[in-house]
Amino acid sequence: MMNIKILGAGCANCVNLEKAAREAATDLGIEAEFEKVTDYGAIAGYGVMKTPGLVVDEKLVMSGRVPTAATLKELLAPLA
User: Fold this and answer.
1) Which of 36, 68, 70, 72 is nearest to 51 (CA)?
2) Which of the residues are catalytic?
3) Phi, then psi, of 37 in degrees rounded to 5
4) Number of structural domains the chain divides into
5) Can you give the pTM of this predicted structure?
6) In this predicted model, what pLDDT tens digit does every residue of 8-57 receive, in sequence order?
7) How far apart are CA 22 and CA 4, in angstroms?
8) N or C: which end of the chain has fewer CB within 10 A?
9) 31 φ, ψ to 5°?
10) Which domain holds residue 32?
11) H or E element: which one contains 31?
């Protein structure tokens, strides 16, 4: 099972990133566990300076923007 973390304080961008990531995982048939990380120390630990951030299986795959579900599918497909 893939572990997907959404890094951020819960702002609108964080919510939109989670929604797009869930949509992408569903479209790809990926079984994923989603986790929200709101602790700034933990977020900084991943090297994220601008939220939201997306971590897949403990690897930072993007930060500072909200990609479309289609873009996320391109990011997640090789990791599945």
Assistant:
1) 36
2) 11, 14
3) -115, 115
4) 1
5) 0.93
6) 998 999 999 999 999 999 999 999 999 999 999 999 999 999 999 999 99
7) 9
8) N
9) -85, 115
10) 2-79
11) none
